[in-house]
Amino acid sequence: MRASRVATRELRIPWREAVYWCVDLETTGLDPRRARILAVAAVPVRGGVVCCGELFSTRVRPGRGAVWGGAEAHHLVPQDVEGSPPVEEVLAQLDRRLREGVLVVHASQVDVPLLRRVYRECGRAWPAVPVVDTVRLLHRLEQRVRWLTGGGVPVDLERARVYLGLPGYPRHDAAHDAVATAELFVALAVRLGARTVEDLVRWGGVG
Amino acid sequence: MDPIGFVRAARPFGDLTERELAHLVGALEVVYVPRGDRVADRVASSQYVYLVRKGAVRVEKDGTTAHLEEAEVFGGPDGTFCAPLEAWAEEDSLLYRWPAHVVEAVRQRGAVEGEVRSGVLVPVEQLVRRAPVWVPLDATCQQAAQRMAQEGVSSVLVVRQPPAGEGLPVSALAGILTDRDLRIKVVARGLGGDVPVAHVMSSPVHTVDSTTATFSAVLRMLELGVHHLPVVRDGFVVGMVTDTDLVRLQAHSPLFLLKRLEAGEVGRYAEEVAQTAGALLGAGVDVAQVCRAVTQLHDALCRRVVADAHARVGPAPVPYAWVVCGSEGREEQVLPTDQDNFLVTAQDGHEAFFAAFAEAVAEGLQAAGFPPCPGGYMATRWCLPLRRWAEEFHRWLSDPQGESLLHLQVFLDFRRVAGTLSLEPLEQVVQSARHAPVALAHMARSCVGFPVPLGPFRGLRSRHGKVDLKGGLVAPLVCVARVMALAAGSRARNTFERLQAAAQAGLVSREDAEAASDALGFGLRLRLQSQLRAVREGRRPDNEVAVAELSGWEVRRLRESLWAARQLQEVLRRRYHLYLWG
Fold first, then answer.
1. What is the DSSP letter of A167?
2. Residue B266 placed within a domain
3. Radius of gyration (Cα) for chain B, nearest Å?
């Protein structure tokens, strides 16, 4: 597990004392080897509180040769991102934030490999921070409640939020999904009874 | 809905421009608090302004409790949005919060009173419009009346000596004189304007602290039967709050109804008290406090009806006590239900008078919306001299089975509402019950007999999709608390107070007592909500709720409450070894 590159003792602090950056991407597709980033949003959780005032959200100019796709999910058309900064610039701003603490993503299998590829393409080193996937935390919750309720826990962001009693956010863009993920993350940490960062990394960490 | 859309729709701070909204959302923090955890203490509630995004929050301030739901606001620096207070999550809750200064920059004046239901928690100080008006102790009534007319106020404070400095210290207050005093004590008695105020003023003066929540002030006025309360900050009187100020703050205020009762308008009482209770509950007032306020109204109505009865049948030949019992005696009745009352006279020999008197009061109560008791627990049947009552109580308590047990379950919750006769001898008999463990065990056995509708694995056991809140939840708790209060030698009548007394006497753990109190509060609230809905829809209110109509968390709370009731029964079962009795 790459998370182990962070000293284990650093993970043994109460979970609320750590900083988490919850990130959401809008992309041109679901293939992490080819998809380009169209929008990025990141919001921090400090002291267990989602700090919307620090929301970082921007569209990204995908550059030449982008195969436009995924519009059914992100509802963006090329004109929407024309004047936006290029990915190198956005990554520099994002990177500063990610290095501050734990990276939290909902459904990491596309976003994390894609981010790592973009880091590589831009000649940047991937930050040595633990990565927590809220979908894995939801699986963990399901293991706990299945024998009680017999039912499963939904992993889709919107339905998982409803399951945990969080309000619905009908709009889908990177900024809202980042905040939605952050709220889901805090609710899960509380519901699962996490004590340390290590608990969250053990239950929801991805390599 | 996204945060900006939600804040815009909730409009907690008045109409905001796009810039102001963007400013708010830019500083927004999101907090998630699981059920039962504290949202904010007194410090945090002053530093932040909170907006309930999802869930339910209970806020407490100076003994007043309010239940806040989605889109409601609390917190903020001194005074705004009712801080400082303490807040707990009643459900898993998501809250938005802002550092107080951010909200202060965009808050529209007047937005608080108009749009936030937590108006019942606004500190009374915010209602003070002007500095207090006073006259010296040696002033005459005419001088006082002139002063009141000049200043356009309905009361003046009477001070022992004119204050030396700027403010008016509380210690200087000798009394208070209101326009009512002038009407009733001066003009109606044919006295002249040269009567010294000292002869007709009310003394001592009841005051209220400036940070008191308005609803606490309302309760205080109801309990003291006064219409004016000087507001005190740091030992100085800063102004006056009147029932008119408090009525203005809230439609259907209990004070409004009290005024109508005092004016003799009792005809539509049942309907009006239901509206008042509904408005209080809707304003987020805790159900125990709604009960307290409504009890004061019921009592005022009863005294009014008693006074009217005297006007019909004449004054009583000997002292007496008009006593209410059952839920009214416990101060837990909200909607008028069957009359439960009895009469205690100082001595026998006046049966004919008291029979006519009881009949007149019963008729008056019926006209106001309290139907006669089908079980016959009414003063028209139960009218005895004090000595006989004491004997009866003694007899029932020494062998509480069969009919005696039924009598005790109604009569033990007695409370005098009108008349002057002291019931101390009855209290003594009741207190002696704690030395009769066998009798207590008999009573305990009847309490554990109430079946709590919980199935195996704490599942709800409903009949035709309905749960009986009275028989299944409220009655077992009331019954157990009554026995525990007897065993503890407590004089409390109210079930919440009895549970507290039982915990203090070590008869039940503090946790179990608290869980039982919460369960009772929840049961009373749920029942009242459903009864009020029935009244609005023109149906006959009953004690059952349809499980399908409850939200997920209400079902959860109901199960927990029933469990708490069963636990309390278990405590009694263990204490009196009722397993052996079968």
1. P
2. no
3. 26
Q: Stretch B47-71: mean pLDDT, rounded? A: 81
The answer for residues whose C-beta is within 8 angstroms of residue B88's C-beta and 6 or more apart is B36, B37, B38, B39, B57, B58, B59, B60
Q: Characterize the bridge pairing of strands A49-51 and B29-33.
A: antiparallel
How buried is B114 (Cβ within 10 angstroms: 0-12 exposed, 13-18 middle, 19+ buried)?
exposed
Closest-CA distance of chain B to residue A191, Å: 8
Residue A96 amino acid letter: R
Closest partner CB to A190 (pick from B3, B32, B53): B32
Alpha carbon dihedral B37, B42, B47, B52, in 10-degree steps, equals: 40
pLDDT-derived band at A173, boundaries 50, 70, 90? confident
Instruction: Tell me how crowded residue A10 is: count the other CB atoms within 10 A of its CB.
Output: 11
Inter-residue contact B218 to B297 (CB < 8 Å): no
Q: List the end-to-end C-alpha distance of chain B, in Å, as a whole number.
A: 57
> Residues B473, B573: one domain?
yes
Report B:96-155 residues touching A (Cβ under 8 A).
97
B34 assigned to some structural domain: yes
Cβ neighbourhood burial of B4 (10 Å; 0-12, 13-18, 19+): middle
Residues B375 and B323 in one domain: yes
**Tokens of residue B250, six digits:** 């809230």
pLDDT, averaged across chain B: 85
**Where are chain A's structural domains?**
2-204
- Does the ipTM surpass 0.90? no
Averaged pLDDT, A64-78: 73
For chain B, the 3-state helix, strand and coil shares in percent, each to the nearest 5, are 50, 20, 30
Q: Which of A179, A204, A186 is nearest to A41 (CA)?
A: A179
State residue B119's pLDDT score: 56
- Give me the CATH number covering residue B98: 2.60.120.10
Structure tokens at B16: 């905001």
Paired residues of B208 in beta bridges = B231
Residues B223 and B99 both lie in one domain = no
Q: Closest residue of A to B94, CA-based?
A: A166
Residues of B within 8 A of A165 (CB-CB) are: 54-55, 91-92, 94
Asked whether residue B59 is domain-assigned, the answer is yes
Asked if A57 and A40 touch (Cβ cutoff 8 Å), the reply is yes
Which domain does B329 fall in, by range?
A: 300-429
Q: What is the pLDDT of residue B188?
A: 83
pLDDT at A2: 42
pLDDT confidence bin for A3, thresholds 50/70/90? very low
B198 in reach of chain A (CB within 8 A):
no
pLDDT tens figures, B394-412: 999 888 888 888 898 889 9
Region A158-175: mean pLDDT is 80
Residue B372 main-chain phi, psi, to 5 deg: -65, 155
Top CATH class of A2-204 equals: alpha beta
Contact residues for B129 (Cβ-Cβ < 8 A; gap 6+): B239, B245
| Strongest mean pLDDT among A72-81, A149-158, B165-174 | B165-174
* Residue B523 tokens, joined: 């049961």
Using CB atoms, which residue from A49, A167, A176 is nearest to B29? A49
Kind of pairing between the strands at B86-89 and B38-40: antiparallel
**Residues B417-444, mean pLDDT to the nearest whole number:** 90
Contacts of B26 in chain A (CB under 8 A): 52-53
Place of tokens 């996204």: B2
What pLDDT does residue B78 have? Answer: 57
- What is the total count of domains within chain B? 4
Record: contact B30-A190, CB cut-off 8 A: no
Our CA-based measurement puts residue B421 at a distance from the nearest CA of chain A, in whole angstroms, of: 57
